[in-house]
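Worked Example 4.2. Read the sequence first, then its structure tokens.
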Amino acid sequence: MDSDAHRDRIDAQLSGMFGNTTQGAVTGGSFSYTESDMTKIRDNWLDLADSYDTSLRNSSFMVRIEPPAEDFASKFQTNAANRSGESYRSYVEHNRDYCIQQAQLFNDALADYLGVEHTNVTGINKTAPQGPQAGV
């Protein structure tokens, strides 16, 4: 079989695969959250951010590795390990910040839903001590 006939045969087989078009139907969906749903989701994002924050604090050991000796290989491996630790710290810090942003979005949505002023999520878990306070 010559190359033109071979190419024509391949084109004919492929045209059957790409000749038909498929169209999807878009349906109008919806979702809704209750006040307790939004509060729970916000709190889950904050819990996840706290977990990342703990990992971030624990990762400080990963960037302070000392070489076991003064030779080239030891220093090279130590530098590589410290760079890897820095990459991990950046990753964890980014994810922590993302979780806080998501919690803030849910907190803002909850505030809109309840018709109250927006508050910053970083202050949600930091409440004032209970009971009388000196000077008040």
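Now turn to a second chain, presented in exactly the same format:
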Amino acid sequence: MRINEIETTVEAGMANASHAASSNIRLYRGMKVVPFQEQFVRAVRQDRVLKNSSPHEGRLFDLYCQMLGFPHRKRNTLSTALTVTQAAWYGITVYQIFPYNNASYLFSTKHKDLLDLATEIDSVWSNAWHKGKFSQFDLPIWSHQHDREQKAEIATAISDEMWAQMLTLIKEELTVKAPLSTTNDINQVAHGKGEVLVYVDQYVAKFYDHLKHGTE
């Protein structure tokens, strides 16, 4: 069972994160750690709360990953970035992250922030709805006269099962406009555009003084 924090030495943690430690790929995360710690080992939460995206966007993203057969969800992954600059957007204290060797990495070759990917999914789905591609479903007729609030209310009322069926119908278009890739090899993350979601039990974090060493 994963827990929020575990009693493990950093040395032991780095041995378990040998793939990340030996790679040229660097993953960073902006965090708020009180009291400040130079380095620590932590388990990934299973109930992470969305901070930078709406529940609707998070739901779309999770269902899209489910449709593709990926285990990654917004609530059970660690959000990291390939650059210090992007990591610092989400927290001024930046740590270099070393996931354990059983990690699975998810990234986009098009979108720097996966929130943009969720927005793309919503856009593709809205256009398909407007063009009548979901006519077999009992959905209200949507037109451009509907405002964002009305559309959001309709989207919220749609069941996860129906969402999954609709996303499957537009899967080909989605995989072009909202590409996602997964790998167990951290070196393959080099093909990513920016944000990398890490599905893993535990990781080591080491403080990265970007004010001293600079950004990448």
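Notes for the reader: The chain has one domain: 10-213. The chain has a mean pLDDT of 87.
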